[in-house]
Amino acid sequence: MKAGRNISKEGWEMVSREVHYQNDHVAVSTEEIRTPARRAPRKWTVVNRKKAVVIAPITADGKFILICQERIPIRQAIWEVPSFQIDEAPEQDEAALSAIALRELKEETGYQLAKGGDLVALGHYFTSPGFTDEHGYFFLAQPVQLSSEGHAHDESESILDCRAFAGSELLRMIDQNEIRDANTLSICARLMARGILRA
Predict the structure, then answer these.
(1) CATH label of the domain that carries residue 156
(2) Range of the domain at 70
(3) What predicted TM-score, i.e. pTM, was given to this entire model?
(4) Would residue 198 count as lying in a domain?
(5) Whether residue 92 sits in one domain with residue 73
(6) Distance (Å, rounded) from C-alpha 175 to C-alpha 68?
(7) For helices 167-175 and 182-193, what crossing angle results, to 10°?
(8) Which ranges constitute the DSSP H helices of the chain?
(9) Percentage of the chain lying above the pLDDT 90 cut
(10) Nearest-CA neighbor of 84 among 128, 139, 147, 143?
(11) How many structural domains is the chain composed of?
(12) Distance separating alpha carbons of residues 161 and 14, to the nearest angstrom
């Protein structure tokens, strides 16, 4: 399927787009793009993927909640912060994104924002901008506590464990390459830059 010419913001122009594969989660296409810096069009293979919410839950005693989840593409179970793809919130709608973050936090971990707690938006990032437009919205939830209902994650999510880690332990896991997914590393960098995660 080919799409015609499309002028987008800031001088980026899509000359053509051919979709090779598409399902409910991703679309793979070849795009011919004219950029603000290069007037001659360039062809690029692009993967379009749903947006994500990435959340750093911290308990009242300063521990970080991580989940251990099986990840089929890498054939491993890894420790990571809770994150989830979204499709129902308009881009940049912080209220809708916040509601999704709190709902999914409870479903995946069994933790919820404690009374008087805060959910703080920490911006967004791109997972791998060399081939995909996927990006995640960061949130800090503090303090969190276990809910009386516990988690309600779907069996398809393959979440094996959920645990609280001290900041020093989290940093050790990063240093020892035990944590190596982009979501967790990126939100930890943001937390360190703000002085929230320290050794």
Answers:
(1) 3.90.79.10
(2) 51-193
(3) 0.87
(4) no
(5) yes
(6) 18
(7) 130
(8) 94-109, 167-175, 182-193
(9) 76
(10) 139
(11) 2
(12) 44
